[in-house]
From TrEMBL:
Keywords assigned: ATP-binding, Kinase, Membrane, Nucleotide-binding, Transferase, Transmembrane, Transmembrane helix
Top-level EC class: transferase
SUPFAM superfamilies in UniProt: Protein kinase-like (PK-like), Quinoprotein alcohol dehydrogenase-like, Tricorn protease domain 2
Binding site for ATP: K38
Keyword Transferase carried by entry: yes
Family of this protein: Belongs to the protein kinase superfamily. NEK Ser/Thr protein kinase family. NIMA subfamily.
UniProt-listed Enzyme Commission number(s): 2.7.11.1
Domain of life according to the entry: Bacteria
Gene Ontology MF, one: ATP binding
Name of the featured protein: non-specific serine/threonine protein kinase
Location of the Protein kinase domain: 9-313
Residue spans crossing the bilayer: 330-351
Organism listed in the record: Eisenbergiella massiliensis
Keyword set includes Transmembrane helix: yes
Length: 968
C-alpha cells in the first residue's frame, strides 16, 4: 500500500538513501504531478517560526539548474521536504560505471553548476549555501544539462540542540572538519578582505542566532543582530570555536567534484594530501582552476562563483595548447604565404567558408527549435545570424537551410487565418496562474510571490507587484486598465495606466468580481467569512458569514492551485456562490439571506466548478470516477437539468454563456432551451482545459497539444508542447499557453490575411484539389466525387458528379495555351476531359487500362522528374540523362512547376494534406508551402479548405532579410 503524507502527497517508492535521510518518489494527488519527498527522522530542534522563515525562503528559489522546493511537512515524527522530481541520472552512477566525460563537457557542466551557486549565494539577506556538493547530488538531465539537487533544510535538523552540518569526505572543505586553514596560509600577506558581510548557511545563521540567546558571553566577537557574524566563527558548546562555512566552502566542494569527474578518483580527505591533476588528465589551465578551488586556505581559493566561472570562460585565451596552436598556425601561415600565396589564400578562404557554413547549419537548427516552442522573435534572430552579410570574400554562400529557417520563422507563405506564434514570454519561475484582460490587451502572470503585467501589443512588462505567498493568490481584471489582486498587504485595486494603487483592503487570497465590475468579494483560507467591497473606492459594504465552514484548500498552498473551488458573484453582485471543504455548495443571497439556495448541504464531491449566467447558475462537480453537471434557475429556485458522466467535466459560465466539456467534446449550453451547440471536437483525446472568446475556442488536450477552433467548430490549427498545457487563455487578438513546470509562456496572435484573398467558396463542399484556369477567370474544385467551378467573384458557375467514381484511376488538371480542363482516367482506360470554364465534357476516348503504379513524369527546362507510387521521385538531367537528385519520399508528388530559377513541387501527404516545396536549382528546399494548390503566373495559390483561396508572390532573399530586420 502506498503511504499518504499530509493528505496530499502519495509516496510511491524509495529511490535513494543516505546519512541525510531517505528519498522517495511521490506524486501530488490533486495535480497528478511527480515530486520527490526527502524524509529525515532526526529530531526537529529549531523554533517553528524560525524554521518557517527558512522554508519560505527556500520555496522562493527558482533557477533552471536547481530543483524547486515546494513544501515542508511533518508527519508521525518524520520531517519531509517536497521538491521537484528531476529526471535523469546522478553523476555518481556514471562514475560507478567507469564513464569519464570529456574535458569540454565537464567545463560546460562546471559553468552551469557555478551559475546555480552564484544564484544561491546571492539570495538575500546573506546567501544560501548548498553545503554538500558531490557527484551524487548532481543530476544529468536527458537534455544534457545538469541539476544541483539536495539543497534543503537538512542543516536545521539537529540532535539535542547540536548543529551538525552533514558533509561527504573527500568533497568537504577543511572548514567542514573544523580546521581554520586561513591562519596557516602559505602567504599570510595575501588575504582577500573585500567581501561583504560573510555569506553563511542560512540555517547556521538561524542556529547561531539562537545559540547566542542561551550562551550569552560565550560568543565573543560575533555580531548576532540580524544574523551577522565575524569570519572567525562562533562559539561551540564546549567553549571552543567552530569555523563558519561560507561561499568558499561550496567552491572547494565543487572543485573536488570536478576533480573526481576528470580523474575518476575521489580526492583525498585532507586538502593538503590532494594530488594535483596531471597533463594526462586535463589541460594545465583546467588543473590550475581545480587546484585554486581546492586550496586548503579559504582566502587562497576563488572568492565567489562568479570569479571561478570567469576563469573557465577565459580558458580559450590562456590554454597553452591553444596558444601553441595559434603560434603554429601563424608560422605556417607565413611560410605558406611566402611559398604558396595564392593557394594559401584559397585554402584559408575555403576553411573560413566551411566554418561559416557549419555555423549557419547550427543556427538554422536553433531557429527551428525556437520556432517549435513559439518564440518567433528568437527564431528570426537566429536565422538572420545564419545568413552572411555578403561583405567579405571569406563568407560562404547563403545555405538553403538558413533561407528556409528565415522563411518559416517569418511565416510569409502561411496565409491561413488564425492564432500564430508570436513570442515566448520568460518568467522568473513557473507560472501559478495566468489571466488576460477582457479585450486581450494585457496579460497577468502569477508566479512565486509576484504578479507580472505585460502589454501584449508590444510584449513589454508594465509592472511587477508582490502578492501573497500562496498559489491561491488571485488576480482579476476589472477592465483593460485596472486589476484586483491578492497583495501582500491585502486585496489591492491597481491602476495600470498610472501604475498606482487605488485602494487596499483586508488580507485575502481568493477573489471574485460581479459581472458589472461593481462589487468584489474576498476570502482567505483561514477565515469562515467573505468580505464584500465596493470596487469604485474599496469601501467594505458587508460580510458573508459561512458559519464555521471554509473554502477547500490544499495542505500546501505554495505548490500550486489545484482549483476545484467555486467562489463567484452574479452580474449585479447580489448572489455569491461558494463551495466548501465538506462538499457543500451554496448560493448565498446577499440581499435577503432567507432566500439562500443550498444545492448541497455537504457531499463527497471533491472538485467543483461553476458560475452565473443571467438568472441561471451552472456547476460541475466530480469525485472518483464520476462527474455531474447541474443547472439552477435562481429566479424560480428550481433545479432545471443535470446529467452525470464518467469523464472529468470542465465548465465555464459567465454572462457570455455556459460552456461544458465532456471528454473530447466542448459544447455551448443554452440555459433557456437546453440546446447544445458544438464548439470543439478533439477526436480521440480528452480536453483538459479550454478558453472561449469572440467565437474562437482554444482547447488543451491530454496529449500535450493545444488547438484552435473557429465559430463553426472547425479545427483551425494544432500545436504540440513538451508538457501538458495547464493554462490556456484567449481574449481579443491574443492567446496564451503555459504549464506549471516551465518558466515561460507562449504568446500567439490572431492573424487575418483577407488582403491576399483570391476568391471565396462554400467551405462545406468537400474536394481534394483546387486549380486556377489558364486565363485566370475561373477556379475548379474537384475530387473523385465530382467538381465545382467558380468565377473569381465567388459565383458558382457549374457543378457535376463524376460517373463510376469508385473506378476512377487518376485526375489531372491540365492548362496550356489551348486552355484548361480536368482530365479524368478510369481503370478501364476510359478518359474524359471537362472544361474548366463551364464544366462541359469536351472529349471522351477509350484506351488501354493504365498501370496501377501511378507512374508519372514531369518536365522542366532542364530536368525530367520520374515519380511512381511506391518510390521517391528521381530527377534526371535532360541532356546527359544523369540522376542528379532524389526528392521528397514520404509523400506523393502531384505537380512540378518551374518559376524563373526556382522549382516548385506539390505533394499529398499520407494524411491527405497538400503542401509544396520551393527548391533552388540544386533541388535544396528553400521554403515549405502549406496548403499550396496551384502556381499561376509566378503567384502561389493556397487552399485552406475554409472557403478561401489566397495568393502571394515569391519572396526574394533580400525581401526576407528586410522583413526579418523589422522583427529584431
Amino acid at each position: 500500500m502506498s503511504q499518504i503524507i499530509a493528505g496530499i502527497y502519495e509516496i510511491q517508492r524509495q529511490i535513494g538513501s543516505g546519512g541525510g535521510g531517505i528519498v522517495y518518489l511521490g506524486r501530488h494527488l490533486r495535480l497528478e504531478k511527480q515530486v520527490v519527498l526527502k524524509a529525515d527522522r532526526r529530531t526537529l530542534d529549531t523554533r517553528p517560526e524560525v524554521l518557517r522563515r527558512e522554508v519560505d525562503m527556500l520555496k522562493g528559489l527558482s533557477h533552471r539548474y536547481i530543483p524547486q522546493v515546494y513544501d515542508f511537512v511533518q508527519e508521525d515524527g518524520v520531517v519531509y521536504t517536497v521538491m521537484d522530481f528531476i529526471e535523469g541520472e546522478s553523476f555518481d552512477k556514471l562514475l560507478g560505471r567507469g564513464l569519464l566525460p570529456s574535458q569540454p563537457q565537464i567545463i560546460k557542466w562546471a559553468c552551469q553548476l557555478l551559475e546555480a551557486l552564484s544564484y544561491l549565494h546571492s539570495r538575500p539577506p546573506y546567501g544560501i549555501l548548498h553545503g554538500d556538493i558531490k557527484p551524487a547530488n548532481i543530476m544529468l538531465r536527458p537534455d544534457g544539462d545538469i541539476c544541483l539537487i539536495d539543497y534543503n533544510i537538512a542543516l536545521a535538523l539537529g540532535e539535542n540542540g547540536a548543529v551538525k552540518a552533514g558533509f561527504s569526505r573527500g568533497y568537504a572543505s577543511p572548514e567542514h572538519y573544523g580546521a581554520d586553514e586561513n591562519n596557516q596560509s602559505r602567504n599570510p600577506a595575501v588575504r582577500i578582505s573585500n567581501r561583504k558581510t560573510p555569506q553563511v548557511s542560512m540555517t547556521e545563521t538561524i542556529k547561531a542566532a539562537e545559540t547566542t540567546q542561551t550562551l550569552g558571553k560565550k560568543v565573543p566577537e560575533t555580531e548576532c543582530a540580524a544574523g551577522h557574524f565575524s569570519s572567525s566563527g562562533v562559539s561551540s558548546k564546549n567553549g571552543g570555536y567552530a569555523v563558519m562555512l561560507d561561499v568558499r566552502s561550496d567552491i572547494y566542494s565543487l572543485g573536488a567534484t570536478l576533480y573526481h569527474l576528470l580523474s575518476g578518483h575521489r580526492p583525498a580527505q585532507n586538502a593538503k594530501d590532494v594530488t594535483p591533476l596531471g597533463a594526462d588528465v586535463c589541460s594545465p589551465e583546467v588543473a590550475a582552476i581545480i587546484r585554486k578551488a581546492m586550496e586548503p586556505a579559504p582566502d587562497m581559493r576563488f572568492q565567489s562563483a562568479e570569479e571561478m566561472i570567469n576563469a573557465f570562460l577565459q580558458l580559450h585565451r590562456s590554454d597553452r595548447r591553444v596558444i601553441r596552436h595559434r603560434r603554429r598556425m601563424a608560422v605556417s601561415a607565413v611560410l605558406l604565404t611566402m611559398v604558396f600565396l595564392i593557394g594559401g589564400i584559397c585554402c584559408f578562404t575555403g576553411l573560413k567558408q566551411m566554418e561559416q557554413r557549419q555555423a549557419a547549419l547550427t543556427l538554422a537548427e536553433y531557429s527551428a527549435d525556437s520556432l517549435a516552442v513559439g518564440n518567433v522573435t528568437d527564431a528570426v534572430n537566429k536565422a538572420l545570424q545564419a545568413i552572411p552579410s555578403g561583405r567579405s570574400i571569406f563568407e560562404a554562400p547563403v545555405t538553403s537551410q538558413a533561407q528556409r529557417a528565415l522563411t518559416e520563422a517569418l511565416g510569409v507563405y502561411d496565409l491561413s487565418d488564425g492564432f500564430k506564434a508570436l513570442k515566448t514570454i520568460d518568467l522568473p519561475s513557473a507560472p501559478l496562474k495566468i489571466e488576460i484582460s477582457p479585450q486581450g490587451s494585457c496579460l497577468a502572470a502569477v508566479y512565486a510571490y509576484e504578479v507580472a503585467l505585460f502589454d501584449l501589443d508590444n510584449q513589454k512588462r508594465l509592472v511587477t507587484l508582490p502578492i501573497q505567498k500562496s498559489a491561491l493568490a488571485d488576480v482579476l481584471f476589472l477592465n483593460e486598465n485596472e486589476i484586483l489582486y491578492a497583495g501582500v498587504d491585502g486585496v489591492t485595486a491597481f491602476d495600470l495606466e498610472t501604475l498606482s494603487v487605488r485602494w487596499t483592503g483586508e488580507v485575502a487570497a481568493t477573489l471574485a468580481v460581479s459581472g458589472n465590475r461593481a462589487i468584489a468579494a474576498a476570502v482567505n483560507t483561514d477565515r469562515d467569512c467573505a468580505v464584500l467591497y465596493r470596487v469604485s473606492d474599496g469601501c467594505i459594504i458587508g460580510e458573508k458569514d459561512f458559519k464555521g465552514r471554509y473554502l477547500p484548500a490544499a495542505a500546501n498552498d505554495i505548490f500550486a492551485d489545484p482549483g476545484g473551488v467555486v467562489f463567484s458573484l452574479n452580474e449585479d453582485g447580489s448572489m455569491l456562490a461558494a463551495s466548501f471543504s465538506d462538499g457543500g455548495l451554496t448560493l448565498f443571497n446577499l440581499e435577503n439571506p432567507e432566500e439562500d439556495l443550498i444545492i448541497y448541504e455537504e457531499s463527497d464531491y471533491i472538485h467543483f466548478e461553476g458560475g452565473f449566467c443571467g438568472q441561471y447558475f451552472a456547476f460541475a462537480a466530480d469525485k472518483s470516477g464520476e462527474s455531474i453537471f447541474g443547472l439552477v434557475d435562481i429566479a424560480e429556485s428550481v433545479y432545471m437539468n443535470g446529467y452525470s458522466s464518467r469523464n472529468n467535466l470542465l465548465l465555464h459560465a459567465d454572462e457570455q454563456g455556459i460552456y461544458l466539456s465532456d471528454g473530447n467534446l466542448l459544447v455551448r449550453f443554452d440555459a433557456q432551451t437546453l440546446e447544445e451547440t458544438e464548439m470543439a471536437y478533439t477526436e480521440n483525446v480528452n480536453i483538459t482545459a479550454f478558453s472561449v472568446d469572440n467565437g474562437y475556442v482554444l482547447a488543451a488536450t491530454e496529449d500535450n497539444c493545444f488547438s484552435f477552433y473557429d465559430s463553426g467548430a472547425n479545427l483551425m490549427s494544432t500545436e504540440s508542447c513538451n508538457e501538458n498545457c495547464d493554462f490556456v487563455v484567449l481574449a481579443g487578438n491574443y492567446a496564451v499557453v503555459g504549464n506549471r513546470n516551465e518558466p515561460a509562456l507562449r504568446l500567439l496572435k490572431l492573424e487575418n490575411h483577407s488582403a491576399a484573398q483570391l476568391l471565396s467558396y462554400d467551405a462545406r463542399y468537400p474536394h481534394d484539389e483546387a486549380r486556377i484556369s489558364q486565363n485566370g477567370q475561373t477556379a475548379m474544385l474537384f475530387s473523385y466525387q465530382g467538381f465545382r467551378i467558380y468565377n473569381m467573384d465567388g459565383e458558382l458557375l457549374a457543378e457535376a458528379e463524376l460517373p463510376d467514381k469508385e473506378q476512377i484511376y487518376d485526375q489531372q488538371f491540365i492548362k496550356n495555351t489551348d486552355g484548361s480542363w480536368l482530365e479524368v482516367t478510369w481503370y478501364d482506360g476510359a478518359k474524359r476531359c471537362y472544361s474548366a470554364a463551364d464544366g462541359f465534357l469536351i472529349s471522351e476516348e477509350a484506351g488501354e487500362a493504365p498501370s496501377k503504379d501511378l507512374y508519372e513524369e514531369f518536365y522542366t527546362q532542364q530536368y525530367r522528374i520520374a515519380s511512381s507510387l511506391h518510390g521517391a521521385p528521381e530527377v534526371y538531367d535532360l541532356e546527359s540523362g544523369r540522376l542528379v537528385a532524389v526528392l521528397e519520399e514520404d509523400a506523393y508528388l502531384t505537380y512540378v512547376t518551374q518559376v524563373e530559377n526556382y522549382i516548385i513541387t506539390e505533394y499529398i501527404s499520407a494524411a491527405g494534406e497538400r503542401y509544396g516545396l520551393l527548391l533552388n536549382d540544386n533541388f535544396e528546399v528553400l521554403a515549405y508551402l502549406p496548403g499550396l494548390c496551384d502556381v499561376k503566373e509566378g503567384m502561389l495559390v493556397f487552399d485552406y479548405e475554409s472557403g478561401n483561396l489566397r495568393q502571394c508572390r515569391l519572396y526574394s532573399l533580400g525581401e526576407l532579410l528586410a522583413l526579418g530586420e523589422t522583427l529584431k
